[in-house]
């Protein structure tokens, strides 16, 4: 199955795109976001990573092909995880530039499937990404973050409408971690599901 089949997207305007994994049907399915910026583009959460998200971004036309002749047309691409649960961090390994909150950086670097709360079942993946694929084979791959986020900061100039991303690390009542990204001056935020 190609990346074009696996993913689908919807434009929300102002350079913001909502992306989802079409054949992963679960209450755990993360929203994947592409935010086109003036100096870099940012993917917020990457889904399971069963198909290439970067391939989808380029082949669907959401991003200009990396073979483009004009360097100015190619902005850096940064993948940011709101938290490292498997449905948000599974595709981070596909990106050269990865950002995560410092509280979860070690778990991501270890590929810690306990910390990533990896519980995927065959029934949630309604169309196998490849012949013979089974959920029990799935693991979040270890990724060394290239940017460690701290409370109150974030990747500069990450989106089209404002100049900063504010990061706040939070935990739910059960102690699960997550980051809250307020990127459009309270117009839009990315957070735990």
UniProtKB/TrEMBL annotation:
It comes from the Eukaryota. Gene3D superfamilies: Ribonuclease Z/Hydroxyacylglutathione hydrolase-like. Residues 30-155 form the Metallo-beta-lactamase domain. This is Metallo-beta-lactamase domain containing 2. It comes from Propithecus coquereli.
């Amino acid at each position: 199955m190609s990346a074009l089949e696996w993913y689908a997207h919807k434009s929300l305007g102002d350079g913001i795109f909502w992306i989802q994994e079409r054949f992963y049907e679960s209450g755990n399915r993360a929203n994947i976001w592409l935010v086109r910026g003036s100096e870099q583009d940012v993917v917020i959460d990457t889904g399971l990573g069963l198909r290439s998200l970067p391939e989808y971004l380029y082949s669907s036309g959401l991003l200009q092909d990396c073979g483009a002749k004009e360097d100015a047309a190619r902005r850096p691409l940064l993948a940011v995880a709101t938290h490292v649960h498997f449905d948000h961090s599974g595709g981070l390994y596909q990106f050269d530039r990865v950002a995560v909150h410092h509280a979860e950086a070690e778990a991501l670097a270890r590929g810690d499937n306990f910390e990533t709360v990896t519980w995927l079942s065959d029934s949630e993946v309604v169309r196998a990404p490849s012949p013979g694929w089974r959920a029990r084979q799935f693991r979040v791959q270890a990724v060394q973050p290239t940017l460690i986020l701290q409370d109150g900061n974030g990747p500069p100039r990450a989106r089209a409408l404002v100049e900063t991303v504010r990061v706040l690390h939070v935990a739910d009542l059960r102690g699960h971690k997550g980051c809250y990204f307020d990127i459009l001056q309270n117009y839009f935020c990315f957070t735990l599901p």
